[in-house]
Amino acid sequence: MEPFRIEIPQADLDDLRRRLADTRWPHEPSGDGWERGVPQSYLRELAEYWGGAYDWRAAEARLNEYPQFVTEIDGATVHFLHVRSPEPDATPLVLTHGWPGSFLEYVDLVGPLTDPRAHGGDPADAFHVVVPSLPGYGFSGPLTGAGWGVPRIAAAWAELMGRLGYDRYLAQGTDFGSWVTIALAAMDAGHALGAHVNFLITPPPGDPRELGALDEDTGRRLARLAHFVDDESGYMKIQATRPVTLSYALTDSPVGQLAWIVEKFKEWTDSGKSPEDAVDRDRLLTNVSLYWFTRTAGSSAQLYHETADMLPVSAAPRQQPPVPVPLGVSVFPHDPSQPVRAWAEQSFPNIVQWTEHDRGGHFPGLEQPGLLADDIRRFARTLAGA
């Protein structure tokens, strides 16, 4: 394991600003809403800010305040934050992001989770925190080979936690990170104390045509997932089938990369007119910048290709393995996946905590870090008291 610092060359920042200034803007149909994609008026203003007032060096310095490392596991470079708690009896916790996120999603949780005493909390709730970047994402990329699906990533995380000296640990995940977390708990149950996720897809059991009448809440959740599949999942189909073709455009055009990610922060968050209603503008651009500077638009999209049979747009999505350890589920109301608890419990009988939040969406670490941190703490207390 080697210490790591983020040090983007000045030439890369200059290149970004040049490309933003030289953007070839397309003709836009009448109207300025989000129905057909990211409105040009919004994107132009955001791109101008990215190339001007936005301060990457300030963001870089803030991220470098956290201890970071890289190591090689199974032939891949793995970048991760590792922040030990000042509390000697803290519980190890591995946090896994998804797409189009990054390790940045968990940065605001690190302080409160590792040092609750300094944040007005109970020191008994402390964690040693590990935040890896998924293989092919950010500084864990690019990948040099294929085959990096969920089981292989989970095995790498088990290896990572072992190398760090953590014999027993908790795991938490969002988006793809939820799938990795569940797979990790299933394959490493001898070391994983429990799994906590804030993204869970629960398809109807059996033949959907035989469901009969649904209660209002279940019908609403199914309708939200159906809307996602019908209207918001085009990116998923492209990344699952042609990630390489897509990568040429996103790696060459910063405005293209920006639009590709920003659209999801608008659709999947507790936002109003723009994504910044839910996620701070600079934080949003830092996340996009991590993809841009590391040229990992294509390698991150490969995960969709590797997991195509698990995606909700596949004909018959393959289900996650049952979890032999306690599972906690955190549901945020503006996430496109609104799981049904009764159906979830048929696949995951070890659910010990289910929280329905009143605000937040698919990126709770960026939108509502306090709610997510509190739910993780409560889950850990549940296990400790079992």
Provide structural commentary.
This protein has 386 residues and is of the alpha/beta class. Helix content is 43%, strand content 13%. It contains 15 helices and 9 strands. The protein has helices spanning 10-21, 40-51, 56-63, 107-114, 150-163, 176-187, 216-232, 234-241, 243-252, 254-267, 281-294, 297-306, 341-347, 364-367, 369-384, and strands spanning 2-4, 68-73, 76-83, 91-96, 127-132, 169-173, 192-197, 327-331, 351-356. It has a 9-stranded mixed β-sheet, sandwiched between helices. Strand 2 and strand 3 (76-83) form a beta hairpin. Helix 8 packs across helix 12 and helix 9 runs antiparallel to helix 12. The chain is globular and about 60 Å long. The mean pLDDT is 95.
Topology readout:
Blueprint (H helix, E strand, L loop, with lengths): L1 E3 L5 H12 L18 H12 L4 H8 L4 E6 L2 E8 L7 E6 L10 H8 L12 E6 L17 H14 L5 E5 L2 H12 L4 E6 L18 H17 L1 H8 L1 H10 L1 H14 L13 H14 L2 H10 L20 E5 L9 H7 L3 E6 L7 H4 L1 H16 L2
Parallel strand pairs: 4-5, 4-6, 6-7, 7-8, 8-9
Antiparallel strand pairs: 1-2, 2-3, 3-5
Helix pairs in contact: 1-2, 4-15, 5-6, 8-12, 9-10, 9-12, 10-11
